[in-house]
Description:
By secondary structure, the protein is α/β, with parallel strands linked by helices. It has one domain (7-247): 3-Layer(aba) Sandwich (Rossmann fold). It contains nine helices and ten strands. It has helices at residues 45-52, 75-81, 98-109, 123-135, 151-162, 181-196, 209-215, 233-238, 240-247, and strands at residues 7-16, 19-29, 34-38, 60-65, 68-69, 83-85, 169-173, 201-205, 218-223, 226-232. The strands form two sheets. A six-stranded mixed β-sheet has the order 6-7-8-3-9-10, sandwiched between helices. Strands 2-1-4-5 form a four-stranded antiparallel β-sheet, covered by helices on one side. A hairpin with a 2-residue loop joins strand 9 and strand 10 (226-232). Helix 3 (98-109) packs across helix 4 (123-135). Adenosine-5'-triphosphate (ATP) is lined by residues 16, 19, 21, 39, 41-47.
Amino acid sequence: MSRDAILITEGLEKQFGGVVAARDISVAMYPGETLAVIGANGAGKTTFVNMVTGYLKPSAGTIRFRGRDITGMSPRDTARSGIRRSFQISQIFPQLTTLENVIIADIAAAESGGALSAPALTGERMDAARAILARFALDGFADSIVGTLPQGVKKQLDIAMAAVGDPAVILLDEPTSGVSVDEKIGMMETALAPLKDGETTLLFIEHDMDIVRRFAARTVAFYEGTILADGPTGEVLQNDKVRQYVIGGAHA
Length: 252
Ligand SMILES: Nc1ncnc2c1ncn2[C@@H]1O[C@H](COP(=O)(O)OP(=O)(O)OP(=O)(O)O)[C@@H](O)[C@H]1O
């Protein structure tokens, strides 16, 4: 790709005691592209996302975002600089409404951020939160208590919350986990559509190869903490080693 990469990892490594969870992870991500990360359980996918988003400090290697070295930056500063994420287990507040959850995400993402005080709940912020819900086709659920919603809608909300503030890079950790096979494609279509029309770089970890084929132009395959293949999705999924070590072990 001729354009400059927006996020580059070089030689990332993470050790937990004697366990090497990630080794020599070098990936360049480009503005506007959608990548899937695949790999069997324990392959190092979440460890990679945790390092990129500041939740884990790499044992070695560097992370550069927009040309700047952000290795070891805190999760909070990483998020504010424009790299946001979702988690395998939703970080939403089930007892609050959809609108309230988006407002909290907006406050957390704000530059000056943090203060959950009355002045934070401005009309402007309410309008922005409503606009996000509309953009992600969640406006019909604005006043619903999140805990009562179907899993597919909760995961859609997760993605909408990661997109608050228009970050440059969004990393989604298993956005379809727990969503029924029938709902998955529709959920992903609805949730990703608003992100496809801009410069947002989207990376998602996924075990379902149908979802990978359908939504990711490029795929990075992890195996035992290393990158086994990185390229156009069709090619990676046909790669002999990927078929043997990754897809064979995936619960697709
Ligand atoms: N905090 C930790 N302490 C010790 N070992 C860890 C820790 N986090 C991850 N690991 C180990 O690192 C390896 C990679 O784990 P990771 O969670 O990144 O895998 P994954 O590919 O995301 O798996 P899954 O598909 O099950 O989510 C595993 O062997 C795991 O047990």
